[in-house]
Amino acid sequence: MTIKLLGIGKTDDPAIQNLTEVYIKRLGFYNKFEFELIPDLKKVKNLDENQQKTKEGELLLNKLNNSDFVVLLDENGKQFSSEGFSEYIQKRLNSGLKQLVFIIGGPYGFSEAVYNRADAKVSLSKMTFSHQMVRLFFVEQLYRAFTILKNEPYHHR
């Protein structure tokens, strides 16, 4: 199974980008992992919030296959402990999925079309983080999940 993270916009902060890349590289030792960023929309000044979400949603949906299991990283999603998230990942690995796709929305969240396509929603926290930080936190937690599953010492219980 491939695990994929989809997001919108580039990471401006080189420190966050470098740390994100560290965890992406580490993930490669455990599972096939892809990270894809869709460029920011151009000329958003003339778009209202819903129009921007709709356009971003179309770009996100075009990156999905019908067979993908899609999980939105959403503030209203299910919250897990790190151990619980590792169990969630293990269940998906055992399910025979070809691709598990996690999506980080744009600055205003997701369009209704993206919500309708989603199979699940996961929340990293009740707090709000920048999209750049969410990328880092997510790849770190995914790496942590694999170290928990492999009973490795990265996660101290």
Automatic annotation (TrEMBL):
Keywords: Cytoplasm, Methyltransferase, rRNA processing, S-adenosyl-L-methionine, Transferase. InterPro entries: Alpha/beta_knot_MTases (IPR029028), RlmH-like (IPR003742), tRNA_m1G_MTases_N (IPR029026). NCBIfam families: PRK00103.2-4. The gene is rlmH. This is Ribosomal RNA large subunit methyltransferase H. Belongs to the RNA methyltransferase RlmH family. Homodimer. It is found in: Cytoplasm. Specifically methylates the pseudouridine at position 1915 (m3Psi1915) in 23S rRNA. Pfam families: SPOUT_MTase. Its EC number is 2.1.1.177. It comes from the Bacteria. It comes from Gillisia lutea. It catalyses: pseudouridine(1915) in 23S rRNA + S-adenosyl-L-methionine = N(3)-methylpseudouridine(1915) in 23S rRNA + S-adenosyl-L-homocysteine + H(+). S-adenosyl-L-methionine binds at L73, G105, L124, S125, K126, M127, T128, F129.
